[in-house]
From TrEMBL:
List of catalytic residues: 80 (proton donor)
Catalysed transformations (reactions): adenosine(34) in tRNA + H2O + H(+) = inosine(34) in tRNA + NH4(+)
Family to which this protein belongs: Belongs to the cytidine and deoxycytidylate deaminase family. ADAT2 subfamily.
Organism: Plantactinospora solaniradicis
Domain CMP/dCMP-type deaminase intervals: 7-138
Name of this chain's protein: tRNA-specific adenosine deaminase
Any one Gene Ontology molecular-function term assigned to this protein's record: tRNA-specific adenosine-34 deaminase activity
HAMAP family given in the database record: tRNA_aden_deaminase
Amino acid sequence: MMTGRRQQHEAWMRRALEVSGTGPGDLGAVGPAGDAADRAREVAAEDVPVGAVIYGPDGTELATARNERERTGDPTAHAEVLALRRAASVVGAWRLTGCTLVVTLEPCTMCAGALVLARISTLVFGAWEPKTGAVGSLWDVVRDRRLNHRPEVYGGVLEAECAAALRAFFR
Ligand SMILES: [Zn+2]
């Protein structure tokens, strides 16, 4: 049975939300102090919960990632960049033509640039990010007419749910 594009995008966004986690509670209870694994969970819990999933041309899930900047201490460890790296490694090539990147928050300039470089064909994002968004809010990196590759963009998918998950983290 055929699923409409909108339903498909919403189902994929629910998966991205699941990947993002929604805060400390989702990472498991923190045990006795001093345990390295617990400390790692605590640090991971400090990461802004952004989730990304990449689907292949046939709709197969290729890779998932969560923002890991705090956990890894890597300024470039945004969910989208990690997901692009993982998907490229699964595919065995840097070119992700035909693939769809689904992310719970409007990508920043780095991630927007990275997904264009990876030749992602479709971008689906959830909440708008008026402070740093590079897919329409502050800049529009992915639809710049000077670029020879411009993905199709669907923004604001399950926007309320995605925004609520982020608000819960910052509260
Ligand atoms: Zn980013």
